[in-house]
Amino acid sequence: MAKEYSFYPGCSSQKGGSASNLMASVDTMCEELDIKLNEIPDWNCCSASIGYAGGGELPRLTLSARNIALSEQHNPDQDIVATCAACWLATREAKERLGESEETMQDANTALAEANLKLENNTPTKHMVEVLMEDIGMDAVKAKVKKPLSGLKIAGYVGCQTNRPFGIQGESFENPVYLDNMIEAVGAEPIRDYDKKVSCCGGALAFSEPEKAYELIQGIIESAVDAGADMIVTPCPVCQMNVEVYQDQINARQGTKFDMPVVYYSQLMAVAFGRSAKDAALDGQVIKAKQLEEIAAK
Q: Cβ(86)–Cβ(17) under 8 Å?
């Protein structure tokens, strides 16, 4: 029987969004692992970035509270799962902050009552990697592998948002190893001593202060290159986008020749599970993950 979850996809995973390839590959991965994602009806933006720009704490928390309340109404007794690191972080923060303050909880419910909603706030919120590590387990992932990613050396880039302040259950803040374990489970070689594993990619600085972001991104790529990585894997849409799409700009400015594919863990699994390059959404890469495409084509 499929494990069912209340799914919050977030804005970037929508069709045509910057992380639509994440969503497509997650769908493939979940199909293979017998995971059913029940999308929260009429979900809204979690306010991950703009919510901190001056709207105030209550509106920001209430946006995520609305998603939780909708989940409790439509998908009762199902853990909320997000694939986007920022969406998971915002939803998890809202749950904890509202649970700590009776006054803020009352204020949020006053706002939600205008939409005929009430937040109970009893629903656990998980990142998809927590589902994989805690509920599914790496033994089950290994059992599904049909095309091991043998010969590939991969740097697991965790980034900031799945690491602090909450982190993934049971993982070290300084050296989380869940991506390393996923890489190993699909038959590739993880770079376990990758020293930029939890470094910041600059996030939205890529728009407002690009030079600062480029410096951070360059360090992430250089560290992977120096360790002999064939590609970088990440759980975060912003990390994936920044580290992949700005390589051309960094090359032009610094005279480097970076051409490092940056993929999602779900794409690794989709290929290793024997699915096509299209099912793994490899056609959505800016820098082609040619080695994964070759394995998928076998």
A: no
**Partners of 36 in beta bridges:** 4
* CATH number, domain containing residue 110: 1.20.1050.140
> Which pairs count as long-range contacts for 62-66, CB under 8 Å and 24+ apart, including other chains?
62/107, 62/108, 62/111, 62/112, 63/94, 64/90, 64/91, 64/93, 64/94, 64/95, 65/94, 65/98, 65/108, 65/112, 65/119, 65/121, 66/112, 66/115, 66/117
Q: What tokens does 179 get?
A: 């991506």
Cα angle, residue 34 at apex, residues 175 and 134 outer, rounded to 5°: 30
> Looking at the domain assignment, is residue 30 inside a domain?
yes
Handedness of CA 109, 168, 262, 5 (dihedral sign): negative
User: 246 is in which domain, residue-wise?
Assistant: 146-297
For residues 184 and 118, membership in a common domain is answered with no
Q: Indicate the residue among 128, 157, 185 that finishes a domain.
A: 128
Longest dimension (CA), the chain: 59
Q: Is 135 a domain residue?
A: no
Token digits of residue 218 = 């360059």
- Token pair of 117, please? 């909603």
pLDDT digits (tens, 9 = 90+) for 105-159: 999 999 999 999 999 999 999 999 999 999 999 999 999 999 999 999 999 999 9
Q: By the 8 A CB rule, do 179 and 158 touch? A: yes
> Which residues sit opposite 127 in a β-bridge?
82
Provide the 3-class DSSP secondary structure of residue 223.
helix
Specify the pTM. Answer: 0.95
